[in-house]
Amino acid sequence: MTRYMLDEENSKSHRHGDDFPLDQLREQLQAGLDALDRGSFIEVGDADLDATLDGLAASPLR
């Protein structure tokens, strides 16, 4: 099973790669751990995850 955060406050995604400051990575990690502690996640089966990822891979990039 894979867990996905439901907490909108902490769902901001960043795509900066290696230039993402370490303190911000730590902050995002802590936000994720806090969300897990609060139970703000759903469990997704492997087949559902694979289907979703396959759909994303088939979609053209914007």
Structure notes:
This protein is of the alpha+beta class. The chain has a domain at 1-8 and 20-52. 48% of the residues lie in helices and 13% in strands. It is built from two helices and two strands; from the N terminus they run βαβα. The chain has a two-stranded antiparallel sheet. The longest helix is centred in the middle third of the chain and has 17 residues, at 22-38.
Based on the model shown, name its key terms.
single chain, 62 residues, alpha+beta, two-stranded antiparallel sheet, 2 strands, 48% helix, flat
- Average the pLDDT over all residues and give the rounded result: 79
Secondary structural class: alpha+beta
Q: If strands are numbered along the chain, what order do they take across the biggest sheet?
A: 1-2
As a whole number of angstroms, the C-alpha radius of gyration is 14 Å
Biased composition (Basic and acidic residues): 1-19
Region (Disordered): 1-21
